[in-house]
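Lab meeting minutes (informal)
Scribe: AK
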Amino acid sequence: MTEWFYNIKTGEVEEGRQSVASELDGPFATREDAARAQEIIAERSRKWAAEDSSDD
């Protein structure tokens, strides 16, 4: 199974680990998801923040 990564330094999608881990977000299941990495991460962060605030 191929893993896809978003390189936060270059803004490029990479098939497999081509760069150092500190420059990568992922893995993602598809190239399309990796291309949307910043959007997906922002959505997850908002969801987690909402869950954390509801625990108070």
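Next up, CB showed the second protein from the same session:
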Amino acid sequence: MERRSILRAGLSGLLGFFAIRQTAAAAPPKRQRVAYHLADLDRVVFALGNIQNHVDGVGGPGQADIRLVVHGPALRGFHALAAQPHIVAATERLTQAGVAFEACANTMKAQGVKLEDLTSGFIAAEKGGVVRLAELQQQGYAYLRP
């Protein structure tokens, strides 16, 4: 009788292990949350390309929560009157794909621009770009600086 109990317990444990393993394997992957940091004007096109590749790599729009925080000289690349057409197009395409664009309020003040002076889709990082990046990291966003 004792052998049967041990055999049943062992078999139950083994089946339970496989059931848990199967359930864990069936769980959907966690949605990526990523904060891109852009400060260098000469990296604007490169960063936008990286973000497009990221959107495509996760399966298209809406599959990841992606934020681009822009401060310093890089913000000049998004001044609406001076922005290159391919930057405007990329910004619009990525905004439609769900990417959030955040402009450092300190940089905007230093450059004398308002949100309406930037390419469409920007919101202000009121406490500053670096503070916003730290907040996003505290919220679990991965930090990338292309």
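CB comment: The two ends are 66 Å apart (CA to CA).
No objections, moving on.
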